[in-house]
Each structure stands twice: as C-alpha cells, then as structure tokens.
What we know:
Elements: H1 3-17, H2 25-60
Helix pairs in contact: 1-2
Amino acid sequence: MGRQDEIRLIAYHIWEEENCPAGHDCEHWLKAEAIWDEQQKQKAVKQSTKAKAVKKKHAKT
Length: 61
C-alpha cells in the first residue's frame, strides 16, 4: 500500500470516529498526513535503533 492509500485509510478512520461529518475532508486529510508522518518517523527510529543493536552485536563477535 502506498503513502496516499495509507493516508486515505487514516483519514477515513478519523472521519468515522467523528461520526461521519460532511465537509471536513481537508481537515481529516491533514490530520491523517500528520499521523502518517509521525508513524514514519517512529518506524525510522525503530529501524535505526535495531540496526545499531545488530551492528554493536556483530562488533563484539
């Protein structure tokens, strides 16, 4: 699934959580983008941390 599809899904969930209001598409999209961006940052940190741990483990052997 691509970036836009993931954001669309997040925006849809936001829309549902807010009881499906009309006319808030842009607001929901922007919130969804911010959530997606934060998720990507968290994934990058986890991957970096994991890579450092693996590198450190191999350095000890």
